Amino acid sequence: MKTMKKLAAMLAACGILLSLAGCGDKDKTFTGKAYEKEIMTPGEIVVGISADYPPYESMGTDGKVEGFDVDMANELAKYMGAEGKDVKVTFKNMDFSSIITALQSGQIDVGISAFTYDPERDCLFSDPYLISEQLVVLPKGSTVKSLDELSGKKIGAGTGTTGEKAAKENISGAEVTSPGDYTVMFEALKNGALDAVVCDGQVAKNNAEANGFVIMEEPLVKEENSVIVKKGNDELLKEVNEAVKQFKASDAYVELQQKWGLTEA
């Protein structure tokens, strides 16, 4: 009996120590800024990204993610640090449709992957950093001129993207599907497994130039790209918005658009 009482006392003591240790971790800081209480590790921003969408994000020949969003994330981190204290950026590559779930479950701090505002997405959106548009990409030699001609056709669009939503809303009678990432979809368009692909403007233009695809003249929708943050992380959103503001006012903003062939629509 005494042994059991001693064991219970020891377990209770351990519980108190662990609780105190947890409180200590929560109070740790790197920059001294309020947003650090809303990220996993002070001094590090973990970014969820889907590297199948050049020139925004893709895998480089060195096996690392690259693109406008990648470079921008590193620029934003400079403004989120403090004097003499640079914030580290860590990228987690995942399916686009998984990023918001990862955000909600605390696996990442922010999502940066050409996200556009959609009230149905369960997250917070930063101030926009780019203007974009959703375009319809057609096979080489296509003579399709109107959306009506795509009725009954198979249209590729990323799961959970605003392109998917725009295709379903604007192309009547079409089968909107996602057979894989955008690399797979453009291969499917090339070999006739898809009749069209819906994606961001610069992604469409890059693939059209590389493969001889045709782009429909009128965009399905014009939109703006934002960083996404978990609901409730208002201090983090405030910090990201300030970083976006400073980034857009910097020379790097124009330089990176030129580097990756992006221009505001």
From TrEMBL:
SUPFAM superfamilies xref list: Periplasmic binding protein-like II
GO cellular component: a single term: cell envelope
Whether Lipid metabolism counts among this entry's keywords is no
* Keyword tags: Signal
Which ranges of the sequence are coiled-coil?
none
- Name where it's found: Cell envelope
Q: What is its main location?
A: other
Short name of any one Pfam family annotated for the protein: SBP_bac_3
Would you indicate the residue range of the signal peptide?
A: 1-21
InterPro entries per the record?
Answer: SBP_3_CS (IPR018313), Solute-binding_3/MltF_N (IPR001638)
- Solute-binding protein family 3/N-terminal domain: which residues? 44-264
Q: Which family does it belong to?
A: Belongs to the bacterial solute-binding protein 3 family.
Name of this chain's protein: Transporter substrate-binding domain-containing protein
Source species of the chain? Neobittarella massiliensis
Q: What lineage is this protein's organism placed in?
A: Bacteria, Bacillati, Bacillota, Clostridia, Eubacteriales
